[in-house]
Amino acid sequence: xxxxxxxxxxxxxxxxxxxxxxxxxxxxxxxxxxxxxxxxxxxxxxxxxxxxxxxxxxxxxxxxxxxxxxxxxxxxxxxxxxxxxxxxxxxxxxxxxxxxxxxxxxxxxxxxxxxxxxxxxxxxxxxxxxxxxxxxxx
Length: 138
Hints:
434 Repressor (Amino-terminal Domain); rod-shaped
């Protein structure tokens, strides 16, 4: 499940407080445990069932927000893949130019390797740390 942003979490907490509900009352009417509600209000990522239960209680629809987050995530991945393809292509083309002793080989290699080293590798490391939980399932 994609991370629901902190604004939505705060909104749920505010909605509960606006209705003068305690966490235990929200627990009773939502079917979630008090501990789960406490974790969500402290900023933990709720699972899909928790989101749906709280959405039903407060008569809200977070499905669109979840879909928007998926679109944003896909866009980031597309940018990452495009940059990767560009850097790898430029590096390979630079190597080919170098072997054939054509002009511009050094610049292509420099730009290609620089994009790989300064953009792609840090993004890859960041993605690995963000998704380290999913890596342990492999």
